[in-house]
Amino acid sequence: AAAGAGAISDGTACASTTAAREGGEVSADAAGAWARTELSSRLEGIARELRRSVEHEFALAERALQAQHQAAQEAARLQAGATAGQQQAALDAANATQQQLARKLDMKQKQVKGSLSLLTRMRGRLAGRWALEASLRTWCAAAASGKDARMHALLADKLRSLRHVGGLFAAWRRDAQSARREALLAHERAVHETVRCKLFEQLEAERERAAQEADQLRRQLFEEVQQRQLLQENLKRVFMRGVCALNFEAMSL
After folding, report:
1. CB 7 within 8 A of CB 49
2. pLDDT tens-digit profile of 23-53?
3. Which residue, among 8, 69, 72, has the nearest Cα to 38 in the 3D structure?
4. Residue 7, burial from CB neighbour count under 10 angstroms (0-12, 13-18, 19+)
5. Nearest 5°: CA angle at 167, between 162 and 169?
6. Are 49 and 26 in contact (CB under 8 A)?
7. Region for residue 27 given its phi and psi (left: phi exceeds 0; alpha: psi -120 to 50; beta: otherwise)
8. What's the rounded Cα separation, in Å, for the pair 155 and 89?
9. Distance (Å, rounded) from C-alpha 120 to C-alpha 112?
10. What is the value of pTM for the model shown?
11. Between 30 and 211, where is the model more confident?
C-alpha cells in the first residue's frame, strides 16, 4: 500500500509537470484529456503492480502457513508417537511387574503349603516324642524306686571307705609335712652356716687387705718424710752457700 501511494504521488507529479510544460502549445481541454489518459494508464500500471505484489505476498504467506501447519502436524505426530511409545513401555513394564508379582505369589503360596505340611509333620513327631518321653519317665521312676536302696548302701560303703582313706591320707600328710619341715629347717641351717662362714672369710680378707694398705701407706709416709727432710737440708745448704757468696762479695767490695 505504501509503495502504491508513492507510485501514485510520483505519477501525479510527472503528469502535472508535463501538463505545465505543454500548456502553451495545446489548449486546456486537450491538455487535461491527455493528462487524464496518462494518469489513468499510470494508475492502471500501478494497480497491476500492486495486484501482482499482493498476490505474491499472499502466495508467500500461504506457503509459510502451509509449512508451519505441516511442521506443527509433524511435531504433533512425533509427540503422539513418543507418547504412545512411553505408554506402551509403561504398559509393558506394568505387565512384567504383574507377571513377576504373580510368580512371587505362586512361590509364596507354595512355601506356605510346604510350611503347613512341615508343621503338620512336626506336630505328629512332637506328639510321638512326648508320648515316648512320658513312657521313659515312667520307666525311669519305676527303675529308680527299686535302685534307691542299693544306691544308698553303695553310697554308705563308699563314704566309709573314703573316710578311712581320708584318715590315712591325713596321717601321711602330717608325717610328710613334718619331715619336709625338718628338711627345710636343716637346709636353712646349712645355708645360714655357709653364709656365716663366707662372711667371716670376707671379713678376714678385708681385714688383711686393710692391714696391707695401712702398711703401704705408712711406708709411703715414711718415704715422704725422709724426702722432705732431704729437701730441707738441701735448701739449707743452698741458702748457706748463697749467704756465704754474698758475704764474700760484700767483703771484696
Report:
1. yes
2. 444 466 677 777 778 878 888 888 888 888 8
3. 8
4. middle
5. 90
6. no
7. beta
8. 87
9. 12
10. 0.26
11. 211
